[in-house]
Description:
Elements: H1 11-36, E1 40-42, H2 45-75, H3 79-108, E2 112-114, H4 117-139
Antiparallel strand pairs: 1-2
Amino acid sequence: MSGQVGHAVSPAVTDVAAAIIDVFVYVVVLNLFVEYFPTVISETFTLSLLTAVLLKGVLEVVLLAKKRVVARFRRASRPIGKVVAAIMVWAVAFGSKFLVLEAVDVVFGDRVSLGGFFSVSLLVVCLLLSRAAVRRLLEGPVAG
């Protein structure tokens, strides 16, 4: 086996693996919220897992929208363009919480509740921070 060359992993496989890890991280964080925040409810573990998958999808769309708006902000050369782009960044960040709440309500009804605006805001921040921390941990030490 010493003469074998390692196989390169395609970017698609890496993206799928990252998405699966994100969902696992989201399940852990979501279930911690279910345990410690009375307004966050999931009737079963299966619903928590499905909610994590839904959150993964919704948050990916939100992050993509935010990335586009931030790029627009950076490209804006006039002050009015910067102000409009800054308002758009705020609108995406603020509106995303309502999008998450509505998506969960439409898909799961009363069987899953993420509480209100403040609890879902904290949940989203914790989800994204946990995701970033796990990704950084898995990248390993940076050669310097």
